[in-house]
Amino acid sequence: MSHRPLRPRIARPSIALVGAALGAVALSGCVPNSATAPGEAGPGALAVTSTDEACEVSAATATSGTLAFDVTNDGSQVTEFYLLAEDGLRIVGEVENVAPGASRTLTVVAQPGDYFTLCKPGMVGDGVGRAAFAVEGEAVAATGEDAEQKQHAVDLYAAFVKDQVEQLVPAIDEFTAAYAAGDDATARELFPQVRTHYERIEPVAESLGDLDPRIDYREVDAVAEGLDWTGFHRIEKDLWVPEEDALNADGETPAWQDWQPSTTAQRADFAAQLVADVAELDDYVHSDDFQTALDAQGVAGLSNGAIALLDEVATGKITGEEDWWSGTDLWDFAANVEGSKMAFDLSRDFAAAQGEEGEGLVEDIDAGYTRLGNALQAFGSLEDGFVGYTELTEDDRRELSDQLNALAEPLSQLTATILE
Length: 420
Known about the structure:
Structural class: alpha+beta
Largest sheet: 5 strands, mixed
Radius of gyration: 22 Å
Strand order of the largest sheet: 1-8-5-2-3
Distance between the termini: 49 Å
CATH architecture of the largest domain: Up-down Bundle
CATH topology of the largest domain: A middle domain of Talin 1
């Protein structure tokens, strides 16, 4: 592998910043979930039946305005119901912890557009019964006091984080099982895909002491801090065995110095450690402490999350140092940008509400994300895969860097604009 210049890993923001880094929601203004009698749908409500295998909604279209989804759990596991935005990623509304035999109601103010519905029995994995759902009619004003809208945005971010970790848990199980069994071809294929769930919400783990170092530290970082090297990148080096003349990511140390490929027993240990660490992350994002951390910051932190996740790209992924052995940095790049765009989408209305200046800033940021996304698409996508990082030319890297910088400039003004 060719030598690439090293840049130091920069300390990343805590959940107090990123968790609160999401603001007002253009698509919906949810009101608190309410309980209904099992099996009963309220007047004019859409009935949702969740089972272990399916998620049936009584209609695939609705008129814009206040919508109620009465969710009944006819399955054997605790379930969740989601209304997702057109991108299939952003959570417009969700109701969780619906016990078998119980019902709960999700109420949202839905704007015209295309959505998806989804249930998640067991509250882990990708969910079941994903189906298209369309809202027709005229645009409606979001309801609720400003404080309620801000809290709703934070709640939606919490739901997004939980959803990503819930998908990460089974993905990690599959990935580590292949690695421990010596099925390196399968593990190499899964490696960049699994990481996308983590990269979208990475700063959450960074707030928990040594959890992120255990999960995601590069070798050079672990050595510099005197830590045991475990997690994604320790496994990565086993899966992409370095060439004899390769250097570590510090650009100086021979890759084979003080290192040997893991034995079968060591692989089992590294796999088990990563599973346990992700389980700890899952426990945290479903705890009251996590919600309290998000609630504590308010609107000032909302935009900071969009900025921080874009910084993740600029300080690691764009240099090709994050996934040093696999060259799969562009998957991480794209996932970080998705997380940043999510944060911006949820905070954009607070900026736009500041008048002409705020509206202009939102337009500039929108355009910046579009240009960066178009530049990244030249090399692939999360759905179809990306080219290896070493296949990028210097001109390719410069173009991506230029688009990052062009977006970072207006995005850096977002917090100040919101607070005017």
